[in-house]
Amino acid sequence: MTIETSINLIPEQPNEATWVALRHRADEWNRSHRHHLAEISGIMMQFRISDSSAADYAEIRDFVEDVESALGLKAYSASRRIYNEQDYWDAAFVEIGGACLDRPGRPVVLNAAEALERPVPCSKCGWQDALNALQTAPFLIDESILDDANPEGESASGGWDCVALPGGRLLVSKRLLSELRSADVRGLDVLPVLAAETGKESARAFQLGASKAVLVPGIRHASDETFCSSCGAVLDSAGLDERGDSLFGPQAEFRVSHEQVGEQELVSRHPSRAAMLYFAQRAYRIVYGRQFNGVRRGEIIQF
Ligand SMILES: [Zn+2]
Asked: What's the rounded Cα separation, in Å, for the pair 139 and 266?
């Protein structure tokens, strides 16, 4: 695994004098350093730095702080983990999503506006995103899309097995679900979807959720406060008081305890238990290892 950090220096717009000064400083910096500042779409200057270059952090931090105070602008940074194949095989849980098959005028789900309520903010921390939408009815699915190529032109022999639904939900094929069930994967929460053509429950696709949600890390450490116990959102990194750590600090790590997870082999990191689905290694090997169509890997959780 590597951690890649983007640091964005964003002048207020329009501010030509600041831009001229920022470009000048970037040119000077780029002449004598291997990590270059790149101009992105005329709106910001960006560093992208891998943690394999941690030895250069201090120098970059000094430069960024200098630019911030000299030009009166603020740097915004974000880090993401980039996993390799071995990381996935060594993971306790792997997040699985589905292929996006929606295209303009032809969505997979025909009743998303009726089946999902408007997203509401978390009552505890105020976090809101598209996942925080209560589902009040089964999804009505255009099954014919499951046999077509996706919008990128990739086709799926035998149909798509794993498909992204609105609100972060997941559609799985009957054959994928059958494999999970015949292996007695524990913790599945299966909901019917309706076939648009008949209005009846689909025989070939199902909505998959988890019977258990895990919203906060199970291992107590300093970063615990960074997760909302009500919705699982990552809050402001209160534990990172050093300016430097917040510039390069990796996201708070999410580790679960065996007590939290119990026997479950499918858990959700979302209070709906229907989004952010993580498959335990044994279940992951079934879903990812057996050539199902549309399986997309995301984040990893370790014990
Ligand atoms: Zn919350």
From this structure: 21
User: How far away, in angstroms, is 41 Cα from ligand 1 center?
Assistant: 34
Q: Which pLDDT does position 245 carry in this prediction?
A: 54
pLDDT tens track for 129-150: 889 899 999 999 999 999 999 9
CA of 208 to the centre of ligand 1 (A): 23
- Give me the pLDDT at residue 250, please: 64
Q: Rounded to an integer, what distance in angstroms lies between the CA atom of residue 177 and that of residue 287?
A: 9
Band the pLDDT of 243: cuts 50, 70, 90. Answer: very low
User: How many angstroms separate the alpha carbon of residue 134 from the centre of ligand 1?
Assistant: 15
Distance 231 CA to ligand 1 centre (A): 4
Q: How far is the CA of 236 from the centre of ligand 1 (A)?
A: 12
pTM value? 0.85
284 and 141 housed in the same domain = yes
232 CA distance to ligand 1 middle (Å):
6
Judged on CB neighbours under 10 Å (0-12, 13-18, 19+), 83 is middle
| Parent domain of 54 | 2-82
Q: Are residues 174 and 192 in the same domain?
A: yes
Residues 149 and 296 in one domain: yes
Taking CB atoms within 8 Å and a gap of at least 24, the contacts of 10-16 are: 10/43, 10/44, 10/73, 10/74, 10/75, 10/76, 11/44, 11/71, 11/73, 12/73, 13/43
